[in-house]
């Protein structure tokens, strides 16, 4: 299987606190890889280092065999990103932010079609500031898909969505996966990880506790479902 993302011995320290410690992983084409851990475990920092937003103190991260910090332009067309915190211009409307992003890419996805798929067509002319938390979250996912990427990063993908909207997003991502999209996601929802992920890594305080397929991660524990296994790894059960 062709490797899309390769991370080797990635580490990051802020002062005396090591937030990511010697993480290594690889993700193949068409895989959904989940990084699980509590708030402050180092999940977002790991994504930011892979994307070249933050510089690692040690180790390396490559997307399509290139470091993002050094090859932003060539990777720009292939990578979609949805981060936990997204800021927008004051008073900008939904269709305006979609259009502004679309013109940056050679072959963008049809944002009108994405708005319809995510049930946001009725919000086209609304200011982004006027959207509900769930609607803003779905918009951030749409913006990550506008580049028509080959790999996409989702950080806390469905936070703020109700159960129905969350399942709708899962169905869309499963469809995209079948078309060959590679997905790296972080999540607090064990049901989401079970439904979407081919492989997982659980981290605590920046260190890997375990990794493998969902079945392997559960199998290494004394429990029979991912939520109980996760709590066991975290020494909370």
Summarize the structure in words.
With 237 residues, this protein is of the alpha/beta class. It is built from 9 helices and 9 strands. The protein has helices at residues 43-50, 72-76, 94-102, 111-117, 133-145, 163-178, 190-196, 214-219, 226-233; strands spanning 3-14, 17-28, 32-36, 58-63, 79-82, 151-155, 182-187, 199-204, 207-213. Strand 1 and strand 2 form a beta hairpin. The model has no long low-confidence stretch (mean pLDDT 92).
* Content of β-strand: 25-35%
Helices, by number, come to: 9
Number of strands: 9
Mean pLDDT: 92
Distance between the termini: 36 Å
The secondary-structure class comes to: alpha/beta
Largest sheet: 6 strands, mixed
What fraction, in percent, of the residue positions are helical? Answer: 25-40%
Shape: globular
The stretches of 5 or more residues where confidence is low (pLDDT under 50) are none
* Helix and strand sequence: EEEHEHEHHHEHEHEEHH
Instruction: Please state the CA-atom Rg, rounded to the nearest Å.
Output: 18 Å
Read across the widest sheet, the strand sequence of neighbours is 5-6-7-3-8-9
Give the key terms.
237 residues, alpha/beta, 6-stranded mixed β-sheet, 3-stranded antiparallel β-sheet, 9 helices, globular
Ordered list of secondary-structure elements with their pairings:
Elements: E1 3-14, E2 17-28, E3 32-36, H1 43-50, E4 58-63, H2 72-76, E5 79-82, H3 94-102, H4 111-117, H5 133-145, E6 151-155, H6 163-178, E7 182-187, H7 190-196, E8 199-204, E9 207-213, H8 214-219, H9 226-233
């Amino acid at each position: 299987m062709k490797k899309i993302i390769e991370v080797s011995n990635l580490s990051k320290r802020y002062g005396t606190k090591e937030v990511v410690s010697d993480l290594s992983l690889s993700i193949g084409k068409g895989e959904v890889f989940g990084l699980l851990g509590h708030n402050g475990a180092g999940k977002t920092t790991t994504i930011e280092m892979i994307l070249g937003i933050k510089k690692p103190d040690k180790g390396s991260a490559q997307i399509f065999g290139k470091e993002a910090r050094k090859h932003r332009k060539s990777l720009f067309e292939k990578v979609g990103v949805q981060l936990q915190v997204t800021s927008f211009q004051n008073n900008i409307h939904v269709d305006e932010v979609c259009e502004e992003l679309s013109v940056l890419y050679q072959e963008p996805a049809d944002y009108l079609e994405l708005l319809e798929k995510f049930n946001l067509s009725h919000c086209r002319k609304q200011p982004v500031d006027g959207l509900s938390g769930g609607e803003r979250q779905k918009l951030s996912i749409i913006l990550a898909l506008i580049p028509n990427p080959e790999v996409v990063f989702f950080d806390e993908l469905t936070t703020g969505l109700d159960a129905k909207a969350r399942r709708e997003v899962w169905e869309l991502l499963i469809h995209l996966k079948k078309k060959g999209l590679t997905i790296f996601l972080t999540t607090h929802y064990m049901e989401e990880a079970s439904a979407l992920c081919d492989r997982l890594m659980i981290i605590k305080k920046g260190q890997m506790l375990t990794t493998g397929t969902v079945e392997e991660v559960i199998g290494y524990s004394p429990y029979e479902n991912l939520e109980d296994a996760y709590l066991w790894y975290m020494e909370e059960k």
